[in-house]
Amino acid sequence: MITLNPITLEGHGMRLEPLTPAHQDGLAAAASDGRLWELWFTSVPKPEGVGTYISEALDGHRDGHMLPWAVRDLAAGAIVGSTRYHDVVAQIDRVEIGYTWYAARCQRSHVNTACKLLLLAHAFETLECRVVGFRTDNFNFVSQRAIEALGAKKDGVIRHHRARPDGTVRDTVIYSILAAEWPDVKRHLATRLARHKRVSMAAGEYVSVSSQADTERADLDQERRELATSPKAERTELAEIYVNRGLTRDLAIHVAEQLMAHDALAAHARDELGINASTQARPIQAALASASSFAVGAAPPAVLAALLPAGLLTHGIVGVTLVLLLLLGGVAARLGGASIFRGALRVAFWGAVAMACTAVIGRLFGAVA
Fold first, then answer.
1. Residue 366 has pLDDT above 60, yes or no
2. Residue 199: pLDDT band by 50, 70, 90 thresholds?
3. Residue 356: closest CA among 321, 309, 310, 330
């Protein structure tokens, strides 16, 4: 029979912290992002009602039928929502996941997938639940799509089931995931998370390289104007560059004149600004390269997350990471003509040191459960 005790769940950039009154301000701010309480088919509290919301959740835990969490985005360091186990039936090893809501900025992101993976893994692999249920309002179509996207099966609809905050009565749509279905669901969620991260990496790379491309365009526009208004000064400037590289002044002037006669802008772009065809910023190419490299790099931990139980996951990922570091170090050394053994050992050693430092810092600052 399952027993529910407060526990911190962390992974995939998110931390689920046992809900306490200390989370009141963070939850109020999260609910205000999108004024979520105005959705008539949800139970998100108004900012002034968050204290009562927390008290009722903690009462549910004391009564043995709830286990509530506040959701923290580790990258931002902010509370972004709440979720909980509820309608717990310990005698048959059943929990439901619900009362879930996130700040508007976190919706349609990796946040829900990451949190559900943590909650489901804890339910099936630690608590050894036989079934995990979900329920939502029949008019909450966004929630229904999100639950179905997890891989949950629709059990049915309970008509005229419970009152909404506005006093109307809702029909409740019921879903569930059985323990036998969990391995496939886990693999599916791990794949979704890897896809989310791949897209995020590509988008970040695109934005970064686009900024570089904008700077290059601005520099070229400026150079084009200067060539149109002060060609002699620009020729002198280009000649000085060649003098500094070792040419005599007469030869430098001659080279500058010849290159500017052929393509003045290209000559200044290459030798003054450092812009040429091979190094020019290409945002789309950078985004595709980033997404592809991340997909390859994320494949091993994603596969492990889908196959290993939660208790072995950390050790499995560390082990596979060290093996891959050995391989990458060896390949890099081979391509560079260096000692394969020394290169592989160096990369693996410093990778292990970095992982150890990260783990120690996480323990010291309470960032690891």
1. no
2. low
3. 321
The residue ranges of DSSP E strands in the chain, in sequence order, are: 9-11, 14-18, 66-73, 78-89, 94-102, 131-137, 153-163, 169-178
d(CA 82, CA 19): 8
- Which CATH homologous superfamily contains domain 1-125? Gcn5-related N-acetyltransferase (GNAT) (3.40.630.30)
Closest CA to 252 of 267, 263, 274: 267
What does R_g of the chain's alpha carbons equal in angstroms?
Answer: 29
What are the start and end residues of each CATH 3.40.630.30 domain in the chain? 1-125
At 369, the pLDDT band (50, 70, 90 cuts) reads very low
| 368 phi-psi bin (left φ>0, alpha ψ -120 to 50, beta other) | beta
Amino acid at position 99, single letter: Y
| Backbone angles phi and psi of 332, in degrees to 5 | -60, -40
315 touches 301 (CB < 8 A): no
Q: Collect contacts of 345-353 with beta carbons under 8 A, ≥24 apart.
A: 348/322, 351/321, 351/322, 351/325, 352/322, 352/325
User: Which position has the token pair 């349609």?
Assistant: 108
Q: Which residues contact 192 (CB under 8 A, 6 or more apart)?
A: 113, 149
Contact partners, residue 106, CB within 8 Å, separation at least 6: 73, 80, 81
pTM for the complete prediction? 0.64
For residues 347 and 324, what is the distance between their CA atoms, to the nearest angstrom? 10
